[in-house]
Amino acid sequence: MKAHIIMHESFEAPGAIKTWCDKNNVDITYTRLYEEDKLPKSTNDFEILFVMGGPQSPATTKEECPYFDAKAES
After folding, report:
1. DSSP structural state of residue 10
2. Mean pLDDT score of the chain, rounded to an integer?
3. 48 and 70 in contact (C-beta within 8 Å)?
4. What is the DSSP string of 24-67?
């Protein structure tokens, strides 16, 4: 099984998610938006998606947070 984690900020960590994945032999890939990683092109590459919170909201503008795009993540 494969999981993917989207992280918005450098202070976010997968914590218990990574522990659970490790215990259940789930492979993890990451998108670190704060490092300008690109979102996965297809959801066919994983069975589970975790989206870390971050301080953003759907109303956050590109000027406030250039790497956050609520539409692209939906």
Report:
1. T
2. 88
3. no
4. TT-EEEEEEGGGTPPPPS-GGG-SEEEE---S--TT--TTT-TT
